[in-house]
Specification:
The protein is an alpha+beta fold. It contains 4 helices and 6 strands. It is globular. The mean pLDDT is about 80.
């Protein structure tokens, strides 16, 4: 799925070639460039799959928490078996929810959540920085 607006922020990433560790590298890059978040993949020990598994098992160790309703920029953990080993970035305003991700053989793509559910990758959960969740809660209480 390609956004209909040529100015959509995902355009700068779509079509980039895949590189080893691409899904995590893309996630880190988009978090930094688009959302101003610093995600240190080195803080999660191990190889790519172990890093993503660690992220899902204990997201609080890297400052993230699971959320029920994703918003733009949230992490999307995926698998094609029971254990997570793929990560993407949630994009709220394309096809009622899409996932920007880097796929071996395809490069950076933006499939809708609906096509994810019907295809190869199974979405396991959505994650957001804990600091942003806390700030949103404070803002709601003040309103």
């Amino acid at each position: 799925m390609i956004p209909s607006s040529p100015a959509h922020w995902t355009q700068r990433y779509l079509g980039m070639p895949y590189e080893p560790g691409g899904c995590l590298l893309l996630f880190v890059r988009v978090q930094r460039e688009r959302f101003g978040r610093i995600v240190d993949p080195v803080a999660i020990p191990g190889a790519l799959r172990e890093r993503i598994l660690a992220f899902s098992a204990a997201p609080e160790t890297v400052g993230w928490a699971r959320v029920a309703r994703p918003i733009d920029g949230d992490a999307v953990l995926m698998s094609f078996h029971a254990r997570p080993h793929h990560i993407g970035v949630y994009v709220a305003d394309v096809a009622r929810g899409s996932v920007l991700q880097s796929i071996e053989g395809s490069g950076v793509v933006l499939p809708s959540l609906a096509s994810q559910a019907a295809g190869f990758w199974r979405v396991l959960g959505f994650y957001r920085p804990q600091a942003e969740i806390a700030a949103d809660a404070v803002a709601r209480e003040a309103a």
